[in-house]
Each structure stands twice: as structure tokens, then as C-alpha cells.
Amino acid sequence: MEGGTNDYFVIKAKENGVHVIGLTRGQDTRFHHTEKLDKGEVMIAQFTEHTSAVKIRGKATIMTKYGNIQTDE
Fold first, then answer.
1. Considering the domain boundaries, does residue 1 fall inside one?
2. Of 13, 26, 28, 73, most Cβ neighbours within 10 A?
3. CA distances from 57 to 18, 22, 45, 46 (A)
């Protein structure tokens, strides 16, 4: 996959209303996709040729091949 990886990551919401925001690649970084997760919901995602970063707002666990990350909210 050009411009991305095949690595998946998992986001599990620990509260209602967790926002997952995809940011674009290119000269201007912009929001291009948002999802709202409720407590217990899981989203499986990956970086692509269009998505270079993901912003997570709310209490969640992010699981990657590098380890797990807990948000501090």
C-alpha cells in the first residue's frame, strides 16, 4: 500500500462519546473522517494513503503492535 502501512490498531472506548478523527496526508493536514464510539465499542483501523494520523478525544484504550496506550482523560 503506497503511503500507508498494513499495520492495524484497535481503539476501545472506555466511556460514551469517544471521538476518533482521521487526519489527511499532504501539504495541508485536515480532518477527513470522524467516528463517535460509545463505551465498550471497538474500532479497528489502519493508516492509509489518505490517513496519516488519528486523533482520539475521550477515555479509550489504543492497542497497537507496539503496545497499549490509555488516554488520560
1. no
2. 13
3. 6, 12, 16, 18
Residue 39 domain flag:
yes
Q: Which tens digits make up the pLDDT trace of 37-69?
A: 999 999 999 888 888 888 999 999 999 999 999
| pLDDT tens per residue, range 16-31 | 999 999 888 777 777 7
Determine, yes or no, domain membership for 72. Answer: no
Residue the block writes with cell 478525544 = 57
CATH code for the domain in which residue 41 is found: 2.60.40.50
Strands 67-70 and 18-24: unpaired
67 Cβ neighbours under 8 A, 6+ residues apart: none
